[in-house]
Design brief:
Elements (H helix, E strand, L loop, with lengths): L2 H12 L5 H24 L11 E2 L18 E2 L2 H14 L5 H14 L5 H16 L7 H14 L5 H20 L9 H29 L4 H5 L1 H11 L5 H15 L4 H17 L5 H11 L14 H18 L5 H13 L20 H8 L1 H24 L1 H4 L3 H12 L12 H4 L4 H16 L7 H18 L5 H5 L2 E3 L2 E3 L1 H7 L6 H23 L3 E3 L6 H4 L6 E3 L1 H18 L5 H14 L9 H15 L19 H17 L5 H19 L5 H17 L6 H20 L5 H18 L5 H16 L4 H12 L13 H11 L5 H18 L9 H13 L6 H17 L4 H16 L6 H16 L5 H10 L6 H17 L2 H21 L2 H5 L1 H16 L8 H12 L5 H17 L1 H14 L2 H19 L10 H10 L6 H17 L1 H15 L8 H27 L4 H12 L7 H17 L1 H5 L2 H12 L5 E5 L4 E5 L2 H17 L6 H11 L4 H17 L1 H19 L8 H22 L8 H12 L4 H10 L1
Parallel strand pairs: 5-6
Antiparallel strand pairs: 1-2, 3-4, 7-8
Helix pairs in contact: 1-2, 1-3, 2-4, 3-4, 3-5, 4-6, 5-6, 5-7, 6-8, 7-8, 7-10, 8-11, 10-11, 11-14, 12-14, 12-15, 14-17, 15-17, 17-22, 19-22, 22-25, 25-28, 27-28, 27-29, 28-30, 29-30, 29-31, 30-32, 31-32, 31-33, 32-34, 33-34, 33-35, 34-36, 35-36, 36-38, 37-38, 37-39, 38-40, 39-40, ...
Amino acid sequence: MSSGPVSLTTLLKKTEHYDKDERYMATSDLCEALKRHAAVSSGAPENGSSSSAGYAYPPSGYSSQHGHPQHGQPQMLDANMEKKICRAVLNLLNDSSNDVQAIAVKTLGVLLRTVHEEQVQEIAASLCTLVLDSSKSELRDVYAIGLRTLVKTVPLHMGDVVSHHLVGRLVEGIRSNSSLTPSSAASKSESKQDDRSTEEIILACLDVLNDILTRFGSTSVSITRQHDQILNTTLAQLASERPVVRKRAGNTVGCLSSVISDPLLFRLVENLLSQIDLAEGVGRSGRRRTRQAHTGGTGTSSTMGAPAVSDTRALIRTMCTVSGAVGHRLGQEQIDRIVPIFLRFCDPDDAATGDDEEDSEDEDMEDANEDKDEAAIALANELRESCFAGFESFVLRCPKEVKPHLPKIIHSALAYLSYDPNYSYGEDDEDETQDDDEDEFSDGDDYEEEDDDDDDDDDGSWKVRRSAICAILAVVEATKDDPSKLWMDEYTLKKKETTVAAALVNRFKEREENCRVDVIGCFTRLLALTVAAAKAGVLVFSNDAMDTSELTAADGPVVIDLGSNYVSAIVKACEKQLSAKKGGERSKSAALALLSTLCTAPGGIGGAAQIRSVFTHIKSILSFGSSGDGGKYRSTSVGGNSKTLKLDALSLVRIMISSDHHDASIVKDALSEILLPELCRSVEEDWYKVIAEALRVLAEIPLLLATSTDKAERDQVASSLCSAILPRLAAHDLDQEIKECALTASSTLLSVLHESLTEDQKNEILKLLQERLANETTRIAAIKTLSVIAADNKGTKVDLSPILADTVSELASLLRQQNRSLKQHALEALDIIVSCHWSDSPTAMNEVLFEVVLKELGGIIVDSDLHISHLSLRTSSSILRVCSASGPSVKLHVLPACLELSSSPLLRDQALKSILELLEQLITSNAVAFDELLSALQGRLSGTEKLSVSNLAKCIAAITSVTTVESREAVVGDIIGSLESALAQGSDDAMGSKEIQLSLLTSGELGRLVDLSAVAGVADRLQNIYLTSFDSTSEEAKHSAAYALGRASVGSMSVFLPAILTALEQNSEKKQYLLLSALRELIHCHQLGDGGDISSSVPEILPHLIKHASDKEEGVRTMSAECLGSLACLHPSVVFPTLRDLVVKHGSTSTSGDASSESAETKDDALVCWTVATSIKFAIAGRADAKVLSEYMPSFLVLLQNDDLSVKNAALLMVYSAVHHTPAVVAGLLQDHILPSLYELAVLNLKRVVDLGPFKHTVDDALPTRKSTLSIFSKCLENCPGSLDIPMFMPILAKALEDVEDVQLQAHHIVISMCAHHPLSVISAVESFVEPLEKTLNKKKGQKTGTELERLNDWIKSGLRVMVTLSHVDGSMSCRKFAEFVERTKKNVKYQSMLESIAEER
């Protein structure tokens, strides 16, 4: 026999040793050997699920004395050795030592991954027999753990076989042990022992079944065949006398519900509901309602055979588990049945409190006795808790189906929010005592806490209250897009009307800590969502109202008066929590979080009284001991969490100071008087987070004093802040966050209050700042601080002369670093320092120092990083502006890079603007001669691309506009001469050259900057040149002329605009596009702020644009639409009504007359409607006034229903633009005006066959429509998901997954996005995704090569990415069809490389 088996044999013998330590060590060594075996076998190729051989590192070379493994080679384990190992491990489970049993279970988990399938079956059968053996009660837990370990670790491909061997026996074990009765035992003691044994067997079987269903339930065929049997058996256990069995059975039913078919699921729900429906309600009102529901016309109750309360609790808990697992699969019919039944068990009339008056009416004696039974009350409370847990699940999982029942659910939850029958809050005296001082409240609160201690263990009503709070929180989350009803809708509780928000505020007095924290947290979440909804325009706070008459309109947004109705009560309730001596720290943290959220709402936390009061309570949290305490910290709460409480308090102070909703003067006065000393002492804390937050607060304080004129106050605050900040700024052995916060605090202190600091203090801060600038870890933070300090703060500047030269040199040296962020911040700081502080030290900051800076700047001006180039050019311009003597240095170091960049086709936006400013500065400062710079720019034309000509034209126009009049006129004369000469030649080469294109563009750009009509004859000659160039055969010349005509019109609109409008009337159709292009440039320049007022010309321009709205050429209509869109941005009140009238006039598809005239008129109408929709798209993209647009948007949305397909497409693009740029404009119109059309257009299919002679080609005219529709849905999911009916969208998404490639790729992106943001909706539709995804993955490559093959692979990979993303969503693998699809795909070899690539992406 080989060395490997011999060594294993030695180990196996040692597992039978009399010494438990020897057995333990041998088993441990065996486990390690099997691990190496598993590691090697995992890399071996699989030849099948049952016949693949395992390879291992058998422990060859084991010492015969110690059994420790030496290095050996992998060898096969024969079947005989496998059997011996399995038998030995199973025997070790019976060991008398617990330690040996534990290592045996661990070894079993490794063994199952190494042995053949036959051995796994044998182990499973043996363990199952041991679990079901009633005589093995002492070791049953060990056997059960072993069996569960087997289920959890066995390879997936063996799941079906293992399930086949186990499920039937486990189900039979549950059934047979459930049928045993105590009477069969010989004695009472034996009866108890048998009961205990049968209970343990049932529980073990249920636990193993749970694991099997969780791991293999969706993929095992054996389990699928036994779904019915498992369901019947587990449902029967819900009526067990043992509570723990009922609970475990409910969990098993929940696991089973995730994998069973819809018919079985509905049968399960019906079974549960039918039994729950028979149950009698709890409480007097609940039982009365139940009897009314069960009483027929004869008045006879039909509740005979109703389950006991304990059984009902198990049924309801199981129903809640099922709804939590597969709530998305429950339909409207099931929800309509479940909710009313659950409401019977939590009737609002039974929500008693200790403050309720005794009911004087005579009640049924049986009811009265039952209500007094503590056990019955406890069971009733557990039932209610389960019901509210069910409501929470329904609201979150089935929001659409449960929506009709929300008012009743809310009513019930609000009633049980105050369900506390054993405690009186003294509500009758609440109004009289609500103005009592805080000390009295605190004493009372302490008294309440002491009184509650003895009763909390027996009183379980707090669990009901907490579950009711959770249900309300679920409602808050479900209505987060429009929570106005939770503030406005009233519910009757104890004969009083209240809203959800008011009821929550009133329950801040809750005596139980967990419930109190949940109530405050629930209201905080409601308030945060309401503030977000107000920002989105869904509702309005009364504090924001400028015109109350508009806000109260019936069709306007809901108005919430937060300040008058809630703020005072919220602040007072939070203060009570903060002042309670024995109040829990969690409650105080929750109160601080609520106040922080309240600061974001209009009006904040109120006026001076509220602010001062809150600051007083915060002071008590931050306070230190008096002098008699030796200056030690006096904790305001018990335990180590006081640091967290202080952190929350400091965060609240920072938010209050920085909030725009508070009067800054009130906050400043209260802060200086009450809180400032404690804030300064907080930076001496030990916890780094508290120190950092305290420094952030101190950084905000100087901003409060920016407008203060009280010098004494400013000096006092500045001195206090400086004393607190300087030690932290000077210390080196601190956390990085503290260092950065200290720098931030010093920046605001020095920039705002520098006049109140002494010279020594300022110099000390600047010295420390310079040290931090030299430190690599704090360098960027120091540069930011320097930028803030150096900025000109309302005419006052900090004297930086002591560090100015050294700082500039240091910043210049940092420009050589590779860190882009560092260079960016250094450039910004340099620009500010040069612009604001050159005059502070002109001798130090001279041209010599600037030359060093400019040399570094010139080296980083490249087109590969336009933002860094922009900052460098801006800094160079600032240097040249403040120090004209630096002109030669700019010319030497910066100008060459600037000229190189000017001819780059990548130059645009801010970099282009900065280069123009620098070139202008070079001319105005006489750093470069105009002729020299002009020649240099013109010389860049040769060798440049056509895209660069426009940038060169802008540069030439910029320097020409600031040069002398003589030089400007000479340049204009040369331009006109060259253009007239080229026109005279008339050749294509002459007009198409880059020189002519440059001349045309330069004239236009120069005309935008200066009034060319001021020079006699120039405007007329240019006008003739532009219009004549329209006849050129060179497309570049024509478009350049149109561009130049529009740009030149900006500076001389009185000359060029009439010419454009006249030409639009007279010229042929070929020139209309060019003239409209010129008009577009004119309007666009005015839109950007160039030129004067164009309003007087709008009535002259509009008729021409409307005339061309029906042009047959799409390019002409597009130009007309662009002009209309730009005009709408400038004058929305004029243009939008005009466009609305066009829709009204041309939007109707019904015409009369003969067929030819009707067809022509219909086509013209469609063209006009297309132009209107396109113009609205451009207007929205140009940021037209959303308020004005909202009035007319419903009229424009009518175009979605137009019969012409092109109009539909244009309207879809209009809607997409609105959803993308201004979602608030269409959010309220989606349901009624947009979505119905989108549902139709998303599945529109207009295929036609085009006969091309040798072959035929199929064209789908509706493809662009479907793509646009899907894009709108995608953008709605991002920007306004609350306005989208997601369940209605899921079938459309499934349909898109089987569309053509482009649509599929869009759908793939949407599914992946929804997995992160809307997982529940995805899970509900995941089964419908399987078939289209599988078709995509099975696309045949055929003879495709090159780009086509690469495109196909990308398509397939996109489908795989969707599958992988879906498989990671919780609950998706419970869908059997999808789970099988994933399993098949992962086993397919041809997808392995793609799946590995996707795994690397994740």
